[in-house]
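Input record (one chain):
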Amino acid sequence: MPRPYADRNIEQLKSLVEEHEKERETLLAELKKRRTPKARALLRRLDPPEPTLDHCVYVIELDPDVLGLNDFRDRNPDHNPEYSCLYVGMTSKSPEQRLEEHKRGGDLSSPKVKRFGLHLRPEFYERLNPMTEEDAEREESELACTLQKAGYAVWWN
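The corresponding structure, as predicted from the sequence alone:
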């Protein structure tokens, strides 16, 4: 790979960087004044927003009686009976708040957690949180699959 600046000393490179930073700031200021879709797209490319780490994954232990449900049992044919039954989810709230919502019931609650939910299992998720929404969506299924492969009976959406 060619090195176009290999012959420059550090002071020259520093000067070039400062010059480009000033030019970049000028460009960003101009783009912020414009309202066209192309200008907004270019602004996002040059100055992307910081990702917001406002989501998390959580794991809830379920009462083993959940294995009495055909759909749960069918989804976990390789369940090790010595391991717990678990529910894996993602949320923009705290895991504690989300567990309470599940237990109260409602549109966004899982009937399995409402009926069989026991308590949170933070040892499975604490090291992962917080994360972006996109990462949480991906991590929810990855964590659930990992736990299921390890022998846990797992439910997730």
